[in-house]
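Question:
Now give any protein.
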Amino acid sequence: MAPMMTPLRLAPLLMPFLAANLFALSPASQFAAGVEEALESARKDARAIMIAAAAQADSDAPLTVKLNINSVDASRGDVDATQVLKDAGIKIRVKTEGTMVCIQNACFLYEGKAVVPPAPDRPNVLTHKLVNGPISFTLEFSRPVCAFSFTRPALIAGEHGVSHPRWAAQAFGKQGEERAMAGEDLIRYFVRTKPKSALPVTLEAKDPANPIAAVRISSDGNLYGVDEDGRPGTVHFAGFSGV
């Protein structure tokens, strides 16, 4: 997301531009009489734009932000997503200890035999890893958003199938109240002739007056059950730590 132009930067750029064009277009005989009026008009226009820009910068009006995770080269290994998110006005506020929110190139996950890249020119995926079990991270937006969208990529079933953790995405308002939720159960897929379809997800704030301030992504790849003696047991089953 490009940074918003501040009032201090706006005035010196705008006013010389207007004045220079007035100088170029005004006949010499009319310039002296009209310059003060023209410059005063330019000053008023500049002040109006400055006021509007300042009001927008200070408001909590929801924004539309597109996160480009393909701006980094992940072909040589995982890339920590912290800076890419920060550049888009998104902060990782909380995450499970020992985990990493990272960008991966899908072509190199399980030798390219587990995840279908979103597109030939967009091979990267954002994921959460390093700990097997219940994990989560929370994204906090510098300014609230109307909706949060992502896609769980298509999955490829190899010789032994493919598995993916159960997950949930929860959107919260500024007071911490839940605004929307989506998720999937643990996936076990064995059809080798056709990938498990991608799943587009959108969490939307239905009340514009209470937009989305944060989103929590939770994943759990464990299977829970009991052994032959009736004792509870847990085993990590999914081929990925997180969504």
